[in-house]
Write a structure and sequence with these properties.
Largest sheet: 3 strands, antiparallel
Bound molecules: zinc ion
Strand content: 5-15%
Strand order of the largest sheet: 2-1-3
Length: about 150
């Protein structure tokens, strides 16, 4: 599977979609795919809802009550994820996704993988590092210390 995706990556115009498709396929094969078509608590069919990493999928409005954090997934983002999982890798470039939907997919996969595989992607830490450098050069630090725990 990895070889197929890597080979396609060298010719694809949409490496980001390929990367997401691979992450989704890997999660599914491992039995860790996010549940997106129904509420993980009550089983009600859903189109979009609140994603909770700890629950491993979407929650309906009733079950989402009292859940801290979470990520709102639009029906469009869920449909796009379904399409990414269904398309053949060679055809992924045909998918057209809005920036908003791309943002939701990226956030969902990052959160899901971090929670369920206990793994931070290198690209994520790289982006964090860049952001951190930008932030720390923009403000004066009073005193050093460990990470804030609030
Ligand atoms: Zn529910």
């Amino acid at each position: 599977m990895l070889v197929t995706y890597l080979r396609e990556m060298t010719v694809s115009a949409s490496p980001q979609l390929l990367s997401w498709a691979f992450q989704l396929a890997y999660l599914r094969v491992s039995g860790l795919g996010p549940v997106l078509e129904r509420c993980v608590e009550c089983g009600r069919e859903l189109s979009g809802g609140l994603y909770s990493a700890a629950q491993g999928g979407l929650l309906c409005g009733d079950c989402a009550r009292g859940i801290e954090g979470g990520l709102e997934l639009s029906p469009g983002a869920v449909r796009s994820l379904e399409a990414i999982g269904r398309f053949e890798v060679q055809h992924l470039g045909r998918l057209r996704l809005s920036e908003q939907i791309r943002g939701q997919i990226e956030a969902l996969l990052r959160s899901h993988i971090r929670y369920h595989l206990d793994l931070s992607l290198k690209s994520e830490s790289f982006l964090r590092k860049l952001q951190g450098e930008r932030t720390s050069s923009a403000r004066t630090e009073a005193d050093g210390g460990g990470p804030d725990d609030q």
